[in-house]
Amino acid sequence: MASVRIILSLLLLAALGIIAQCGASRAIKAAYWPSDVEIPASSIDTSHFTHIYYAFLLPDPTTFRLNETVSDQTKLPEFTGMLQKRKPAVNTLLSIGGGKSDRNVFSRMVNSSETRTAFINSTIEVARKYGFDGVDLDWEYPADERDMSNLALLYKEWRKALDKESKRSGRIRLLLTSAVYYASGFQVDGPPRSYPSQAIRKYVDWVSPMCFDYHGSWENFTGEHSALYDPKSNISTSYGISPWIRAGVPSRKLVMGLPLYGRTWTLQNPNVTGIGAPAVGNGTLTYEQIVEFNVQNHAAVKFDEESVSYYSYVGVSWIGYDDVGSVRRKVRFARSQRLGGYFFWALGQDKNWIISRQASRAWDH
């Protein structure tokens, strides 16, 4: 009998191991839905995603509680209500901040226990009120090491509050995620600083490095704004992901960002058309707009093996972007690095779900 019990115990442990492995290997296939886009939440094809973010709510600059605009009060329940009815179902996360938010508001918010608590409590209240599955912070970007140290305290206190609320309410704990710079350490508009990797490892479900906007209108030459590799510089996704892992953030807690838009330039010389050509950066186009532009203008389309990106040009117009081939390669890179998954910025920019569909298939196969 003892030997039978041992065998059964071993079989049970093996089964639990398989279950755990299956749970750990479930990819995060996420995307942000800007609440001001024309695409309604009801039209999101959830078969390509596991998580959708509502973007964005902002904290009040004085009280640090979340502001719900009149528009938000209509769109928030529509967003969660519609997506909860879809098949397959997806998790919804409430994202706070964004590229257009005032980073100084976040800096003031994290600066004391009282203001952090006011912010945290408000995020939980709003997330529960509208039926979200998690909360997401998109602070672009903490300005210095003091901000980063306070961010670590925010993560710690936020997770503690989420655990406490879950225990008290008997509901599944809200997820805690955060959009971050593409590299764990950086020097942009300020002194060198690094994200609190140990706090992220202990308290955050995952962080989402924004692996795009490497090049743009601030430069006088063409560039691939989401290059996977760049042998000439450290501005690339492959370079950015590595220090996150070296800093101690588990690879499974990294969800790699992918853009559904490209950046545009005006060439100085229409006969000099490669990456790095002298040019004036002048804006962005969605993937859908790029496809239509290329067809309508008979643009030359090139795949750059070095950066794993595409570019097209006609006359003096030049666009750097991702297409099906490069997105497949980047998703497979994420999987090869054992990352937690990927996310897109942003819904409403794809064309007939082409990129979203191919990314999902590339991960699964």
From TrEMBL:
Gene3D superfamilies reported in the protein's UniProt record: 3.10.50.10, Glycosidases
GO molecular function list: hydrolase activity, acting on glycosyl bonds
Signal peptide: 1-24
InterPro entries, A to Z: Chitinase_II/V-like_cat, Chitinase_insertion_sf, GH, Glyco_hydro18_cat, Glyco_hydro_18_chit_AS, Glycosyl_Hydrlase_18
Membrane-traversing stretches: none
Protein family per UniProt: Belongs to the glycosyl hydrolase 18 family. Chitinase class V subfamily.
Protein's name according to its UniProt entry: GH18 domain-containing protein
Upper lineage: Eukaryota, Viridiplantae, Streptophyta, Embryophyta, Tracheophyta
